[in-house]
Design goal:
Elements (H helix, E strand, L loop, with lengths): L6 H12 L5 H12 L4 H8 L3 H22 L1 H24 L6 H17 L1
Length: 121
Amino acid sequence: MKETVGNVQYASLLYDFYGGLLREKQLEIMDLYHEDNLSLSEIAEELGMTRQAVHYTLKKAESSLEKYEEVLGLIRRYDENSRRAKEAEGLINETLAGLDDNSIEKEKLTRVLDIIEEITE
């Protein structure tokens, strides 16, 4: 997964999945960096820290998040499930194209597509 998205995007995904497991200060800095898009200098100024301390805390938090992913694999599973859902949607859409507009099968398959969309949001 990390190879398919940029490092900052991957760190944001890690934060989304595992951020609640961080220490309070790490969570605060990750939130300011990834959610509020503040620079390290802006975070340092806001929190009364040095830029270097913010950088260190951010890197330590990201390292912790990567370890959580190595053990739990939630992002990897999410990515795989998303890929499978897209594949299922494609197969259903192919089947729908060959059905009569008023058929019960078309109605059921359309509902399945709705469920897949709800699950993958």
